[in-house]
Amino acid sequence: MRITVVTPTYNEAENLPKLVSALFSLPLDLRVLIVDDNSPDGTGRIADELTSAYPGRIDVLHRPGKQGLRSAYLNGFQKILDGDSQAIVQMDSDFSHEPSALVEMAKLLESNDVVLGSRYVKGGSVDGRWSLWRKSLSAFGNYYARTILGLPLHDVTTGFRMWRRETLQQLPFERIQSNGYVFLVEMAYLAHCLEFKIGEAPIYFADRRWGKSKMSIKIQMEAAFRIWQVLWHYRDLKKAGKDARL
């Protein structure tokens, strides 16, 4: 199964070469699409250099500036769907997502339409160095979203996901409105409304190894409000179920 990992980057010059090396060491048929938003630290230039180091295995989508997580992934999905990959991965570029987890996720995808890398199933966990406050905030944010939306999943806020090509082709991307953190919740809810089979693989979610985190309390507070907008926005799709697939 050919898998393409799409990873958005903004100031990830320290992480990107290490991530690519780790990905290509896995026993999987992997390709990587880097979506860079004109990073001031030269991430885009490094991405171009990596295409020469790994001929035919890396592609780079350069964008003129920061345009948000939603458009980064949706642009990436469209580009990958024009190719021959059978599975598409959403993955952070800062090593908070452990590359080795892709092996188990690929196995689970054989019997699911999408697989979530989950911190909250048996075997999953978050960085042990996190404070009690941060662990509680993360767990509550996830509980809040899945409770309001009625999602029968353990981790709806995870950004580590592997999709079947056919699943993404049947999602109405034009309906997706959220950006940033809540975009991830919206995609999970959209897949649930359309009655796709969703699996969860345990992952260890680590603090980024290099660079500075882009998550903030403001972003999480905004997400709490927007969860209700997601619920309202898909009320018709929820009723229609799989009949609403493209």
Note the topology:
Elements: E1 2-9, H1 16-24, E2 29-36, H2 43-53, E3 58-62, H3 69-81, E4 87-90, H4 101-109, E5 114-118, E6 125-126, H5 132-149, E7 161-164, H6 165-169, H7 180-193, E8 198-202, E9 204-205, H8 217-233, H9 235-240
Parallel strand pairs: 1-2, 1-4, 2-3, 5-8, 6-9
Antiparallel strand pairs: 4-7, 5-7
Helix pairs in contact: 5-8, 7-8
Helical proportion, percent range: 40-55%
**Strand and helix order:** EHEHEHEHEEHEHHEEHH
Relevant CATH superfamily: Spore Coat Polysaccharide Biosynthesis Protein SpsA, Chain A
Q: How many domains comprise the coordinates?
A: 1
Number of helices: 9
Q: Sheet with the most strands?
A: 7 strands, mixed
Structural descriptors:
246 residues, alpha/beta, Spore Coat Polysaccharide Biosynthesis Protein SpsA, Chain A, seven-stranded mixed beta sheet, 9 strands
